[in-house]
Amino acid sequence: MNGALHSSPGVADIQLKRGPAGLGFNIVGGMDQQYVVNDNGIYVSKIKDDGAAALDGRLQEGDKILAINGMKLEDLTHRAAVELFRTAGEDVKLRVLKKSSCHTNGPTGTQPEHPSSFSLLGTLSVLAGAAAIISLIYMRQIRKH
């Protein structure tokens, strides 16, 4: 499975040097533990503070790792992928598909494109509370007259 991988939009090559704590990130996914529905890919689940990946800064949580040292990660079990990372050596080259809304669960940007249901419900709750207070004040004024 050491085929050539061609560059495409959103794909980045990242070279990391293994540190004392490894490469500095955790992965999820695989044929036996799909992270994204209908996708057997391997994804970055956590970037560890002060690890090789965090110090480099290019690898992000939610990125899909396509290959490690030229070995494609498609159709592997999670355990097989972990073993490839564990035995990859000191200098590790990753081919990564940067996260996008098509490849991750949940929002990917700093702000959602549309108001979230939480903020909408919060706004409605505040308005309902304000209306109740105004009604209470109005009713007290009517009773005084």
Structure description:
By secondary structure, the chain is α+β, with helices and mostly antiparallel strands. The protein folds into 2 domains: 11-97, PDZ domain (Pdz3 Domain); 114-145. 29% of the residues lie in helices and 22% in strands. It contains 3 helices and 6 strands, in the order βββαββαβα. Strands 1, 2, 3, 4, 5 and 6 form a 6-stranded antiparallel beta sheet that branches. A hairpin with a 2-residue loop joins strand 4 (64-68) and strand 5 (71-72).
Number of strands: 6
Shape verdict: elongated
Oligomer description = single chain
Mean pLDDT: 81
Q: Which topology of the largest domain does CATH recognise?
A: Pdz3 Domain
Q: How much helical structure, as a percent, in the residues? A: 25-40%
Structure annotation, total helices: 3
Radius of gyration: 24 Å
Pfam families: PDZ
Domain PDZ: 13-100
GO biological process, one term: cell-cell adhesion
Main location: mitochondrion
